[in-house]
Amino acid sequence: MNSAPERKIIITGDGSHSLEIESMDETYHSRHGALIEAKYVFIEKGIAHTLNSISSSQLNILEVGFGTGLNALVTMIFSEKSEIPVHFTTIEPFPVPSVLFRQLNYGALTLRPNQFVELHLCDWDKDVRFTSKFTLHKIYNKLESAPLKNEFFHCVYFDAFAPSKQAEIWSDENLKKCFDALTPGGFLVTYCAQGAFKRGLKAVGFEVETLEGPPGKKEMVRAKKPN
After folding, report:
1. Is 205 left (phi over 0), alpha (psi -120 to 50) or beta?
2. Which domain holds residue 40?
3. Model pLDDT for residues 173-204, shown as the tens digit of each residue
4. 0.70 exceeded by the pTM?
5. Could you tell me where the beta strands, DSSP code E, fall in 16-150?
6. Which residues are CB-neighbours of 203 under 8 A, at least 6 positions away?
7. Per the CB 3.0–4.6 Å rule, which of 33, 95, 108, 119 could disulfide with 13?
8. Domain membership flag for residue 5
9. In contact, 103 and 18? CB cutoff 8 Å
10. pLDDT tens per residue across span 105-157
11. How many domains are there within the chain?
């Protein structure tokens, strides 16, 4: 894997932090609000919707891009409040260094400062149980080569950098890998609503739905693997 680009902390519109890569002119989250975006795209439109469509004693989630750990944190909080057991697998080839993630304010904003840091510090490539309802498994790899179980996940958080910045992550091959990893009736959710991306999802077998986006973004996508 190539070396990670230089990143710096920025403040988004809802007061929560994000990271910016100036060399790519890219941020890890919407500048309009990182925390709002995570809750809207991945909780409200992602797993909350998925729970209405599946029957399982445990919700298995795959995240493409652990990044700042924000999505894992809000999902852990959701699992506790809803009392839904969650197994959360996340893929990340370029982990955020300690000097940065210890400064991010997600833990303070959600009143989970210790748990947020532990999400980053826990071991890679093994199950780590955080609460009675939430288990994390971080994979130090790229999506292309990460080992994934077929028909195991109920929801995929596709939270990679934008297609205009890292087109290879959004390839049909990677979308097919996510499709195969989902159980029938499972969903893929993402902030992206690019036309070429939606065509790629349809090409590998997804049923694609365009939804209203989070603040500052017109649209987002939720795609279903047919039953």
Report:
1. left
2. 33-224
3. 999 999 999 999 999 999 999 999 999 999 99
4. yes
5. 17-21, 26-27, 59-64, 86-91, 127-129, 134-139
6. 172, 175
7. 33
8. no
9. no
10. 999 999 999 999 999 999 999 999 999 999 999 999 999 999 999 999 999 99
11. 1
